[in-house]
Amino acid sequence: MMSAPPFPAPGTTPIVCVSAASKSFHTPDGRLVEALKAVSLDIPAGRFTTLLGPSGCGKTTLLRLIGGFEEPTGGGIFIDGKLMEGIPAHHRPTNTVFQHYGLFPHLTVAGNVAYGLEIAKVPKAEIRQRVAEALEMVRLPGMETRKITQLSGGQQQRVALARALVLRPKILLLDEPMAALDRKLRKEMQTELKRLQHELGIAFLCVTHDQEEALSMSDLVVVMNRGQIEQQGTPRQIYDQPETEFVAGFVGEISLFRGRIVGDSLQTEAGTTLLIDALASPPDQPVTACLRPEKLALAKPDSTTPLLHGTVRDATYLGTSTRLEVSLGNSEGGMSDTVIATLHGDSPAIGQPITLTYSPADVRLLRHQG
Amino acid sequence: MSFASPPPIPRRPLLRPGMGKLAPGFFLFLCLFLAPVLIVVVYSLLTRGTYGGVVWHLDLDSYARVLGLPNEDELRDWDFVYLGIFAKSAMVAAATAGLTLLMAFPAAWYIARQPDRRKFMLLTLVTLPFFVNALVRVYAWMLILRADGLINNLLMASGLIDQPLHLIYTPGAVVVAMVYQYLPFMVLPLFASLEKMDLRLLEASRDLGASGSITFRRVVLPLAMPGIVAGMVLVFVPAFGNFLAPTLIGGAKDLQLGPLLAQAFLSARDWPFGSAIATLLSAVVLLCLFVMARSEGRQAKEAV
To answer: Where is the ABC transporter domain (chain A) (predicted)?
Structure first.
């Protein structure tokens, strides 16, 4: 199995080092909930890292541990090589953009952005200049005297960004920063965040449940599930080489095949044979393989690549492509596997037979989980 | 980039359709509040009758006496005794309002952070003293504060003091009784302000480098200010003219406005003089309310 070079490149010092951090909570009814289970993670300096996972996977808890809003119940957090145990949020070199923005309604835009600088006793003239620069940076120049309540959601978020970045943190924490924005604005802010991170060279750590957002913004994606890290890597690694069923299913759409290895192929119970390139699993072991929809194509008469025969069960037109759900094998009763394919151009109608082709190199075997 | 100021909001006419619904309330207000106030103001400008009542003859001497101006006809020199009583009453009322604020703030903060059902129960407990007659409540403080009262008995029994402390019949005793009496007036508006406050702002403040005390000063206090102002006015205004507490447990030497007013009408039978005091008292109270309305108006404008 070919695997891409590890990320970050060896030798890079991480800005944040999470070492076997655990966090458990007592629920009001007395149960003990383990939000984080001994998570270890290096967050590279000067890069955009995303914690991706469904709600309740522990990603926000991890962010709050780094920001100092919670103390870990086990393990430790190092920021810039320094153990953060017992250091409260206001003494940490981190700043946060909250999901709810947390802007002070009794202050103006400038008052909000200047808040941290005033507390740090920065000289007045310097404050004024840095506030203006920060607002310029988030593309809200000249908005100093505006009231927070006069701003739109997108503008409020930019103020929250300016307020955090003006303090020049070692790492900027973003807690679901786009959750309250509409789709178009979200796209815009994704580009904007990426640009800011690139320009400033400050490490960004962003929490999101939106896989598209994670893939488009990040240098490093950390997929979390049930208080643990499932996989970390570049967006391409996460998308093309998912290691677990969870990652494969959570990031993008994918078809899964469960079966056994027979020779150089995978045989499912329903009778589908899938040629595989890598022989990582010993024969006769139950394995799961996955195949991305866009790796499938309509077979041409002279195709030399392996084929999958089936019937179109559902077709959805998506503009640039058509998403097909195809039942493999004979669909006349009994078991059948389903594969999802996105095809460009014309595609057969629902109920029509179809022959698809793929490259064995694109079939990926997944790590089995307990 | 520049932003045009919003167009001025046109002034709305005083009388508008639907205002007829205000008529019953307005009528009551007219008969039971405005008319008596008007009578008091008019009486304050008249001459006193021999056995109470008034003689219909314009005379500003009542105000001159309250303000301490000299009057050669009556062989009176400058005399600020009444202004002194005003000042002392204001100080006692201000101390009451300040102490009430200090006691009510933590309580209101605590109640605002409780689950809804507990909130309701605690607020009911706060208002519970309202169900007891005010006179009974002041008498209770007499029992607690007097020479052979609860506090002195406890302190003597524990051997901390040999002689009973002089607690009752002091301005301090009046303040204590009034703090007790008006505490709910402070807790309720504070609670309303603090409950609305977004706790996540405290976290945001910590994140930006502010310690707990800085966060309190720069975030909590400004956001609680409408409640603080409302509570201060609601306590200060009735405490300023309070009659029961200073009469029953205030010292004879430290005359306050409430008892002074009663004396003017009942003992001295000088109705114009009493009316002048009442009018000035009302003027001070109106000023307080005006200041509060101004500050609330500003807050409301800022919140838009």
So the answer is: 16-251
Architecture of domain B87-255 in CATH? Answer: Orthogonal Bundle (1.10)
- Distance between CA atoms of A329 and A335, rounded to whole angstroms? 9
Residues A350 and A336 in one domain: yes
Crossing angle of helices B271-303 and B35-43, in 10° steps, is 130
**A66 plus A201 within the same structural domain:** yes
Burial of A217 (0-12, 13-18, 19+ CB in 10 A): buried
Does B157 reach chain A within 8 Å, measured CB to CB? no
| H/E element, B85 | helix B81-112
Instruction: State what percent of residues in chain A have pLDDT above 70.
Output: 93
Q: Are residues A225 and A275 in the same domain?
A: no
d(CA B154, CA B273): 45
* Numbered residues of chain A with Cβ closer than 8 Å to any chain B Cβ: 67-69, 88-91, 94-96, 98, 100, 102-106, 115-116, 119-120, 141-143, 146-147, 149-150, 163-164, 167
By the 8 A CB rule, do B246 and B259 touch?
yes
Residues of A in contact with B222 (CB under 8 A): 106
Range of the domain at A331: 253-363
Chain A environment of B201 (Cβ under 8 Å): 102, 104
Q: Where are the domains of chain B?
A: 36-79+270-304, 87-255
Pick A149's closest partner by Cβ from B1, B200, B303.
B303
* B10-66 pLDDT per residue, tens: 667 777 788 888 889 999 999 998 999 999 999 999 988 888 788 888 888 899 989
Give the phi and the psi of residue A148 in degrees, each rounded to 5.
-60, -40
Is residue A203 located within the same domain as residue A309? no
Q: Summarize pLDDT for A70-117 with one digit per residue, the tens.
A: 999 999 999 999 999 999 999 999 999 999 999 999 999 999 999 999
Enumerate the residues of chain A whose CB falls inside 8 A of the CB of residue B204.
96, 98, 102-104
Of A214, A249, A284, at which residue does a domain stop?
Answer: A249
Q: Is B220 on the interface with A (CB under 8 A)?
A: no
Q: Judge if A175 and A200 occupy the same domain.
A: yes
Q: Same domain, yes or no, for A182 and A290?
A: no
What b/e readout covers A287-303, taking b as 16+ CB neighbours within 10 angstroms? bbbbbbbebbbbbeeee
Nearest CA in chain B to A28: B115
How many independent structural domains does chain A possess? 2
> Which residues, including other chains, have CB under 8 Å from residue A287's CB and lie 6 or more apart?
A258, A259, A260, A261, A266, A281, A365, A366, A368
> Is the CB of residue B127 less than 8 Å away from at least one CB of chain A?
no
Domain shared by A86 and A180, yes or no? yes
Question: How much is the pTM?
Answer: 0.82
Say whether residue B57 is in contact with chain A using an 8 A CB cutoff. Answer: no
- A265 shares its domain with A337: yes
* Half-sphere exposure at residue B301, Cβ-oriented, CA atoms within 13 angstroms: 6
